[in-house]
Structures are given as C-alpha cells and as structure tokens.
Here is the input.
Amino acid sequence: AFNGTWKVDHSENYDKFMEQLGINVMKRKLAEHDNLKVIIEQTGDKFHIKESSTFRTKEIDFTLAVPFDYTMADGTELSGTWELDGDVLKGKFNRKDNNKVLTTTRALVGGDLVQSYNYEGVDAKRIFKKQ
Ligand code: MYR
Here is the structure.
C-alpha cells in the first residue's frame, strides 16, 4: 500500500538533519523547497521508485534486504538496505565517505506517507500526501 504518487507536504527538523549531514546553508534552503515527489511501485519484495525534485529526477530499483547504492541530491553516496518490519519500511544506510549510519523509515499514517530520518542523533520527518 506504499504504491502511489507522493508529494512532500511539510517537513519537521529537516534543516537540522541536513546540517548534521554537513550540507551547507544555501543547499539546505533550496532543499527545504525541493517539491520532492516520489512514485512508489511495489511488486512483492521489489520496489521501483521514481524520485523527482527541483534538483533532479532519478529512478531507483531495490529488493527488500538486498544492499544497493544510492546517491543523495547533494552527491553524498550511501549504501544499504530497506527491510519491511510489519507495515513499516526500515532503511539502514552507510555513508561511503565516512561510514556513518543514516537510518530512515517509511510508514503510512492516516493516509499520509511519513518518512523519518536519523543521522548522528538528529531526527527529522517529511510528510507526503498522495496525489
Ligand atoms: C528510496 O527508497 O527512495 C531510495 C533510497 C533512499 C535512501 C535514504 C535516503 C536518505 C535521503 C536523505 C536526504 C538528505 C538531504 C539531501
């Protein structure tokens, strides 16, 4: 039921989270208004994601529990996995440049898609509405 087209509606503590990642203030200001849209197509344990924002468009394929690489919009490279824990997608990624861990979850909350992020003690959320 993650399937669909999701547009970011608002974010919580996202600026602090990006600051913790080392992203500079100019990029953070742009990223706050990135109009992120994520199209999720799940077939069994395989996911096809179309990501689009003011920064780029990108397609990502992954299989649950199988490691894959992902490059963030600022160019930071990650490697890790998504797993399904009940109704919650749980992602655990390592930055390739410093090996530090970034965790993220996706869950449906009252019809919204809520993505949480954690990096080095800082939590953030982005709330997406279905289109
Ligand atoms: C996906 O499922 O959409 C692809 C894998 C996502 C990996 C984790 C994403 C963390 C993004 C952090 C954004 C930082 C701000 C530039």
